[in-house]
Amino acid sequence: MIKTRNGRTITSNEKQNKLLKKLYGTVFGRKMLKFLTKPTISHVVGRFMDSKLSKPLIKRFVKSSKIDLSQYIMYDFLSYNDFFTRKIKPEMRPVDPDFSHLISPCDSKLSVYKIDRNSIFRIKGTRYRVCDLLQNKALADHFCGGYCCIFRLEVDDYHRYCYIDNGTKTRNVFIGGELHTVNPIVLDHYNIYKRNCREYTMMRTEHFGNVVQVEVGAMLVGRIVNYDPSGTIRRGIEKGMFEFGGSTIVMLFEKDRVKIDDDILENSAEGIETVVKYGEKIGQSMICS
Prior knowledge:
Layout: E1 2-3, E2 9-10, H1 14-25, H2 27-36, H3 39-49, H4 56-65, H5 80-84, E3 101-103, E4 108-114, E5 120-123, E6 126-129, H6 130-134, H7 137-141, E7 147-153, E8 160-162, E9 167-169, E10 173-175, H8 192-195, E11 198-205, E12 209-216, E13 224-226, E14 231-233, E15 238-242, E16 247-253, E17 258-260, H9 262-269, E18 273-276, E19 281-285
Parallel strand pairs: 1-18
Antiparallel strand pairs: 1-2, 3-19, 4-7, 4-18, 5-6, 7-16, 8-15, 9-11, 9-14, 10-11, 11-12, 12-16, 13-15, 17-19
Helix pairs in contact: 1-2
């Protein structure tokens, strides 16, 4: 289930969910997945989506996803991917100006979990280890007692993301893998956060302590595009984007650094995702309070 910040319940894409149930819930579907989830297939699809041949898909996607084009900077897009990574008008995603407020890095459906002493918790019934995600146990252990925030982007979400605070960042670390869809239906069959391609960086922020941000690729998303190497970061400045498809951002916070907004914690405790927007307040710094 998904809820907006004002408590309204919404549903995900029903057609997409039916297709995923066939792929992940049948013998034939799982055989197809062995082929479809190979990174080489994702790269081939990516090249097609970068080409002019993919332009006819744009109009169909806009109609099926009911996208409000008035929110975006529009021009004659060269390909489907060119449209998919379109920029939103700045006034449509104002960044909360209070630096003590934790902001969402993206448009997404958010779930938040406390990281226990074993760094193991459940996401929609799937056991999840932070050390599996990062392939770095020492780094994972550093966030024991803190929060794990999971921002799930669907295909009709804005697929660019920003930095949550001023500070510095380490280099981007890429971890290869298979590419599975990040839809919750799949979590009953695959530990997608362990098997998907992903990229992470450590950020030393001014108001929220040390934060790890992980971008997780999804099926047919062969490219996670992060702009910056190590260096200085600025709150609200675009960090990168996902090309074609739904994807996920995972953020890890240290113990006693942030207080997540009550409605998000209450929804997460009930297994409900909360709709959040790029630059929107989702919590409060405990360092500044």
